[in-house]
Amino acid sequence: MERISTKAVGRKAIIFFLMGMMLFFDSVIFIEDTNSPVLNSPDDIICESIGHNISWIAEDNQADIYVIYRNGTEIVSGTWCSGVPITISLNGLLAGLYYYIVIVYDASGNFASDMVIVTILL
Predict the structure, then answer these.
(1) Which region, left, alpha or beta, applies to residue 71 given φ > 0 means left and ψ of -120 to 50 means alpha?
(2) Boundaries of every domain in the chain
(3) Cβ atoms < 10 Å from Cβ of 90
(4) Helix (H/G/I), strand (E/B), else coil: 7
(5) pLDDT of residue 30
(6) Who wins on pLDDT, 68 or 48?
(7) Which residues touch 49 (CB under 8 Å, ≥6 apart)?
(8) Does the domain made of 38-120 have the CATH classification 2.60.40.10?
(9) How deeply is 87 buried, as exposed, middle or buried, from its count of CB atoms within 10 A (0-12, 13-18, 19+)?
(10) Is residue 49 very low, low, confident or very high in pLDDT (cuts 50, 70, 90)?
């Protein structure tokens, strides 16, 4: 009996030759994704409240959802695409100190997070 196998991402074809007959078996290989998305870390910001924003860029082959919090309260969530900026405007904020946290998840549930501290001046 001779065994020949070929591999492809997520699938494996196995061909058996047995007594001159060819038998085909197909099986699924599950590859566990344990890698967290890669997320940049923008600098903290000190500014006036008009014309500024925060942009994060995350990368992952299985991009899924993101959540942005301001001072512990969720303010926006959605889906993200690898390499495409996730941007939040700082327009309209009153003078003060704000903590922005973004969490990006991939389809396997892995995540990365970052915090940017924003100081809005009078």
Answers:
(1) left
(2) 1-31, 38-120
(3) 20
(4) strand
(5) 72
(6) 68
(7) 90, 91, 92, 93, 94, 95, 120
(8) yes
(9) exposed
(10) confident
